[in-house]
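Model it.
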Amino acid sequence: MTATADHATSPRGFAEWLDRNCGPVMVLPAVIVILAFALFPLIISAYLALSRFALAPGGFTLRFIGLANFRKLLFGSQQYHLLGAFGRLSVFQWLLVLLIAGLLLYLLYRYFTSGQPTIGGTLGRLIAAATAMGLALVVILTTAQGGVPGTVVNTLLYVVVGVAIQFALGLGLALLCGQPIRGRNFFRVLFFIPLMVTPVGIAYTFRMLADMQKGPFAPLTQAFGITEWSWATEAWSARLMVLVGDTWQWTPFMFIVLLAAVENQPRDQVEAAKLDGANGFQIFRDITWPAIAPIAATVVLIRLIEAFKIIDLPNVLTGGGPGLATESLTLHSFIAWRTQDLGGSAAVGYMLLFISTVFCVSFFNFVVRPARRHEA
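Modeled.
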């Protein structure tokens, strides 16, 4: 026993141990630094979310108030800002609510009856189903007659609709540039340029382009008699302009990754399918899509994570307006911080963290992992 301990503490024994564990030892400093920078803001922001910040002579005070900031956001004076105003549901919207609820219950039933459910899987699916049902209710209620969407619905619009449009455009351009067409290298570089521009620059560019009075398209709109209308004064046209700017910036990201996936698909299978008389849609359905599905799911996941953090475009392009029409959760948190409501800002940040985590983890488990499993 003593000999073994002496051998472990000897320089030769330590060198052997270090040689066996050199990988974890080399990575450990970086892991510690990353954890320190990641955990410290989370801990401090969690304390701020449960406190009330106030300026005081010579500094400031932080008073613990529990979940009061979250109650104010969900049920109190800030409910209109976060969730919006609820309208009256029509018969069709009630049927849509019942359809979504039935679909979620069916998916839970399939999980419990198709195999051996685990505690972690059951808990994760219950949280995902409850979150999905709650967000669906908020979206339907605030878009009903008399409703006004809040920052949660605006963020979901940018995430779901924006990412879907960007993926469709990126995939279409990737399939087009993957064909042996003339000048495709020029278009590859051209389509990639918007990704190199900063979001603030894109916001100011679209703000000038969409100016109905002095912008470059002003003569065209005036020729059609559109002189008094301004897109920035109407909620849905302002949201559309933010979506257009965000799509213009992030479609190249989808395009360049999907192009690499398309060019790495099995060429021998494509050529054999063409010889057998398969058309373009059949080749895409049976060969191209199964080959690029894992990469497509992964790139959409990366873009979803980034889309939840949108702030530059709505802040510069519309200032979050008109009213709260284009304000995202990140911009909501920033505005609260700017007004020195640090507790409310941290609470909004944690609401965003919860929604984005459940959303992205669910997408990973239900889309990315099955796509990778299918590839294997």
